[in-house]
Design brief:
Layout (H helix, E strand, L loop, with lengths): L1 H7 L5 H16 L11 H8 L3 H6 L5 H13 L3 H18 L3 H12 L19
Length: about 130
């Protein structure tokens, strides 16, 4: 959670980066059961960096962005990993409320043919994620 606070305090680009992570964390929270991996918000942010341009400006979603989403989904094989990812998402969504970035981030999983289990929202209940 500390990386999100540092990013928000940076340049104007920072909120968009956080929103990209938020959208993709929603996908991670629904990831099918598989090999367990300890996911950190830092890992998620780095993996989802290719999505930043889309969240900022719209347009085409880069293949690297969808590959990052799918990578995170495959790494989030346990309920604790999915809940941790959800918590990162919730924090990021809270910081992005009211801006255009959140709606773009919400649409990313669908554009990459991945169905998240819950709405990207500052009000999501991460304890209900299995």
């Amino acid at each position: 959670m500390a990386p999100a606070a540092n990013i928000r305090g940076g340049r104007a680009v920072a909120p968009a980066a956080l929103l990209v992570v938020a959208a993709l964390l929603a996908v991670v929270a629904l990831a099918p059961r598989g090999a367990s991996a300890a996911l950190s918000c830092s890992t998620v942010y780095t993996t989802l960096l290719p999505c930043l341009g889309y969240v900022q400006s719209g347009g085409m979603v880069r293949k690297e962005c969808c590959a990052g989403i799918k990578n995170l989904v495959s790494r989030a094989g346990s309920t604790p990993d999915r809940r941790a990812a959800c918590s990162c998402l919730k924090t990021i969504a809270a910081g992005a409320a009211g801006g255009p970035y959140l709606s773009r981030a919400e649409g990313l999983p669908g554009r990459c043919s991945v169905q998240p289990p819950f709405k990207i929202s500052p009000d999501v209940n991460c304890n209900s994620v299995n």
